[in-house]
Structures are given as structure tokens and as C-alpha cells.
Amino acid sequence: MNPLSNILAVGSYAILAAALAIVLPASTGLGAGAATLAGIGVFVAAGLVHWQLLRGHEFRQLGSEFAELSGLERELRAELSDTSRKLEMLASSVTALDAVTNREVLAEMRVLEEMLLKMERRRQNAETRSSGNAVAATGQILPPPAAARTATESAVPLQTVSAALEENRVDLYLQPIVSLPQRKTRFFEGYSRLRDAGGQVIKPAQYLSVAEQAGLISTIDNLLLLRCVQLVRRLHHRNRSAVIFCNISAHSLRDEDFFPQFVDFMEQNSDLAGSLIFEFSQETVRSNGEEEWAQLARLAARDYRFSIDRVADLTMSFDDLAARNFKFIKLSADSLSSRVDELGATLKSSDLKRVLRAHGIDLIAEKIEDETMMVELLDYELDYGQGFLFGEPRRSRGPEEIGRENAKPARHAMAG
User: Fold this and answer.
1) Fewest CB atoms within 10 A around its CB: which of 257, 315, 324, 415?
2) How many CB atoms lie within 10 A of CB 70?
3) Which residues are CB-contacts of 397 (< 8 A; sequence separation ≥ 6)?
């Protein structure tokens, strides 16, 4: 009932009460005071009745609105339940799809690994047959000649290096690259390490010369590439992220059997472009021919970024590097602190950061070993730093270890 109706009703009750106060003395002989009291009583009674009717109407209206709200609440609950069920089904479908995709990708990576090792075995067998004396009667690969052993007395036998490759005992080690001056880990650089049959780590100084003499460097480098890709794919599958600098040597870049297939794979998995930065030495970049640049252009077209390290001088075209999607340049702490002016006849140390920034290239100082070195580099406005001061290389767990860890809860659940 609206306010106007209430006013009219009260007014009518007042008129009725006044009429009774006037009529009753004449018709019943009541005194004026008694008639007035009677009119007031009728007014009050009418008001109470009206108030009760009004409250009853409001209660009925509230009850109707409450019932309507209850109905809407039940509908909303039903819709939320249906939406939750659909989201669970969607999440299950996405998880299943991710699992299938992850298995397919890792299976393809395994095929690439096996292809790489088979190529190496065929190459070694061909060299063995052609030389006629590279293999002993037992079929084992002979160690380097005496002259080579003298130069590398601490080197492991070639047989140990070959066995490590044959049995896929190549590990990925990661070293952090931090932002400066905050020193927050932003990237990692990948390194390869071999293990002997007893699980002991074979340091690069122990196997590099032997592997290079036997032509195995390309195989080791290529396996490092695959390890980096495998790690990034595993992290993506677990909804985690990491950006890894992965070195590509001249041996790998010029491997006509392996590298084109590797580029094909990276093109098909371009979702990894934000997580992998391929790094080349300055010497490798300068010696690239049309075929090498064509392969790298395919990667750049998929938004893969590049880095250049082992810089001997700064007499290079930063325009050309930027156009080819080189986004990082690494200089050693020693070069930055003492002889930048010597590295480039036309580029002064005070201009280095300005020139790099103009080309969209970030500067990384590497081999920073202590705080003293860090202090000496403050004037260069470094973007990033790398070295033992921020962390030494640490081994990344392989997929077989991850698989064993994931299998433990399942075995416990079955046992329970």
C-alpha cells in the first residue's frame, strides 16, 4: 500500500471519529465528553485494524520476495554446480591432452637422441674400417697415441668417453644468470657433463681434448641441446618456467645430418621459443655461411632469440646482430673491467651500454667470481651477471629420475 493510500485511510478514520463525536450526543443522549472519547476509541480501533492489515500485507509481500530469492538461489547453485562440473571436465581434458602432448614430444626427443647416437656409431664404424688399426682385437676403441697422452695426462681414456655417449650418460648442469643490481635469478646457462660407468663426473678438462681428437664433440654438443629442450618441455608440462641459454657450437651448427632435423623439431615446438636462448661464440658467428644463417633465420622466424659469447673484440655490426634476433651479448668481467677500449677501436667503454641499448641488446657480464670484481663493473650499468659469485653450475635431474619419483606415490597407493 502506498503512502497516499495510508493518508487517505487515516483521514477517513478521523472523519468517522469526528462524526461519531457529533452524532452520538444527539441520538443517544451521551454527553459531549463521552461522545468524544467514543470517537477517539473508534479512531484508535480503526487505526489498529488498518495497521494489522498493512503489516499482514507487508509480511505476505516479504514472504513472496523471500520465496523468489530462494528460487533464484537454488537456480544459481544449480548453475554453479554445472559450471564446476564442466570446468573439472575441461581441466581433465586439458591435463590429458598435455600428458599426451608431453609424451609425444619426449618420445620425439628420444628418437632424436637415438638417431644422433646411431649416426655417431655409424661414423665411428666407418672410420674404424677405413683406418684398419683404430680398434684392438677385443673391439674396444684404442686410447690416443702417446704424444696426445703426454699433452693430456689427466684426460680420461677415449673408451670411457665413448661408453658414456653409448650409454647416454650425458648430464645437464645449470648455472644461474642474475639481474643486476637486484641479483634475482632470471635465466640459466646449460653445460654438459659426462659420467663414467661408476657414476663419477668427468670434467670437461678431462674429456674435451680426447673427444675433439676422436670427433665426438658434435655428439656431446648435440646431446646438450636435447637435454636443454627436454628440461624446458618438462617444466612447461608442470606449469613452471625457466629460460635457458643453450650453447650451439660450430660442430653442431655445421652438422648436416643433425642440425636441420633439430631446427625442424624446434619449429614444430615454437611454444618453447620464450624459454630457450641459443648461444654462439663470436668465432662461430663470423664463420657462418649462407646455409648456417638460413637455419638460424628459420629459428628467428619462430621468435627464438640468440646470444653471442666469447667475444674477442667489439668490431662487429650490432645492426646485423639485432636484425638476426641476437638479444644478448656476453663479455667477461676481466674484459669489461680492464680492456673494453682495446676490444673495439671505434667503441669506447663509456659508449658500450648506450650502443647496445639502441640495438635492443642486453649486456651480460660473465665470470664474476667475487665482490671485488662486481664493484669494478658498477659503472657499466650491466643488465645481468653470471659467475661463481651468484652460483656454480648444478646438475639438473634427468627424466628417468623424475619418472622414478613420480612412480613412488603410485606404488605406495597400490600397496595401501
Assistant:
1) 415
2) 10
3) none
DSSP reduced 3-state for 75: helix
Is 348 within a domain?
Answer: yes
25-51 b/e (C-beta count within 10 Å ≥ 16 → b): beeeebeeeebbebbeebbeebeeebe
Question: What's the CATH code of the domain at 173?
Answer: 3.20.20.450
Note whether residue 100 is domain-resident. Answer: no
Assign 220 to helix, strand or coil: helix
Q: What is the DSSP letter of 231?
A: H
Write down the pTM of the prediction. 0.63
For 128, counting Cβ atoms within 10 Å of its Cβ (0-12 exposed, 13-18 middle, 19+ buried), the class is middle
Dist CA 415 CA 184 (whole Å): 43
Handedness of CA 48, 50, 53, 55 (dihedral sign): negative
pLDDT of 304 = 97
Instruction: Give the CA distances from residue 61 to residues 57, 66, 67, in Å, rounded to whole numbers and listed in that order.
Output: 6, 9, 10
CA distance 353 to 357: 6
CA-based nearest residue to 269, from 224, 308, 230: 230
pLDDT tens-digit series, residues 259-288: 999 999 999 999 999 999 999 999 999 999
Q: What φ, ψ does residue 213 adopt, rounded to 5°?
A: -60, -35
Asked if the structure places residue 160 within a domain, the reply is yes
Cell of 125: 664404424
Determine the Cα–Cα distance for residues 212 and 251; give it in Å rounded to an integer: 10
Q: If you count them, how many residues does the chain have?
A: 416
Per residue in 152-183, pLDDT (tens digit) is 446 789 899 989 988 888 899 999 999 999 99
